[in-house]
Amino acid sequence: MKKKLFSQLWIYFASIVFISILVTLLCFLGFIFLLSRHSISPAESAGKPTLYPLFVFAGFSMIVGTGISIFVGRRILHPISALGTNMSLVATGDFSIRMDEQQKVAEVQQLYKDFNVMVQELNSIETLRNDFVSSVSHEFKTPLATIQGYVQLLQAPNLSDEECQIFLYRIIESITQLSQLTENILKLNKLENQRIQLEKKEYRLDEQIREVIVFLQPKWEKEQLELDIELAAVNYTGNEEFLYQVWLNIMDNAIKYNQVNGQIHIKLFETATEIVLEVTDSGVGMNEETRDRMFEKFYQGDTSRQISGNGLGLSLVKKILELHDGRIDYSSIEGVGTTAMIRLSKQ
């Protein structure tokens, strides 16, 4: 059975006060009446003490007390009513609402502060969501338009076998880009929204990094890169699957943004408190804007070169490292190269 809800809290508050006053007065007057055994009528109380003035005063007190309780009740409950009104506005999508935090009551002041923080966070989330949808739409649109264009070209008559192979290669390349984008979005969503508990185990970190280097061998051989590898034997307790993505992204970037016949230096070592992986390339480097925005979702600093990517790799890297109490720092000089420094705390 549902309890009755009061649409006006001040009425509920005033009713409670009124009933409390009434019951208290009745008990008090009844007690006095029984003790005195006097008449309350002026006509019957000649020459005797009377309780009539007392009852008049009690009635007047009830009226005044009830009026005061209504006034005070409205004043006390006004902050709650104002909060309810503003919450309704926020529910409609108005995140510009802010409440005055300068209140005389400490509890109300803290309540308004918490409300303002909540609205600010909701506004940030809504902004990120809109940016995310816009960016995802744009990132999907580009490869889809490419696929559509090459499919239309394949329908043209009198195409040579070489042209068909080129068009098919471009289509496959765009499909791969779509697949990687979808996979990265799902991984990032899983890491950010589900607050998962990572399954961690101890394993050889240096061996995993060697696996990544071997996996990327076709890429760095194609660019004729020279690798200088120094990997100390290191055991680490972490999530092997997610950390593989970290090393893969970092080294893939070192290859993609390098120069032909360039160098990559990969060094893994330990300090007293940390495990450190240092990856240095001799590539194009980064400007200040790219360094400041490199961890933003979908941000790609170098749009002038024909480099495939979706701008989610470093967002994934940063989130995975945070889940391992680690961090990543970059130093870069344009035209000279970039160094990525990954630090994992020893557990």
Automatic annotation (TrEMBL):
Q: Which residues cross the membrane?
A: 9-34, 54-73
- Tell me how this protein sits in the membrane: Multi-pass membrane protein
**EC numbers:** 2.7.13.3
| Sections of the chain in a coiled coil | 181-211
Note the InterPro entries from the entry. HAMP_dom, HATPase_C_sf, HATPase_dom, His_kinase_dom, HisK_dim/P_dom, HisK_dim/P_sf, HssS/ArlS-like, Sig_transdc_His_kin-like_C
Q: Which UniProt keywords apply?
A: Coiled coil, Kinase, Membrane, Phosphoprotein, Transferase, Transmembrane, Transmembrane helix, Two-component regulatory system, Virulence
Q: Which residues form the HAMP domain?
A: 74-127
Which branch of life, at top level? Bacteria
Q: Give a GO molecular function annotation for the protein.
A: phosphorelay sensor kinase activity
Q: What is its main location?
A: membrane
User: Which EC main class describes this enzyme?
Assistant: transferase
Which Pfam family name is an example for this entry? HAMP
What functional role does this protein have?
Answer: Member of the two-component regulatory system HssS/HssR involved in intracellular heme homeostasis and tempering of staphylococcal virulence. HssS functions as a heme sensor histidine kinase which is autophosphorylated at a histidine residue and transfers its phosphate group to an aspartate residue of HssR. HssR/HssS activates the expression of hrtAB, an efflux pump, in response to extracellular heme, hemin, hemoglobin or blood.
Instruction: State what protein this is by name.
Output: Heme sensor protein HssS
Which source organism? Enterococcus lactis
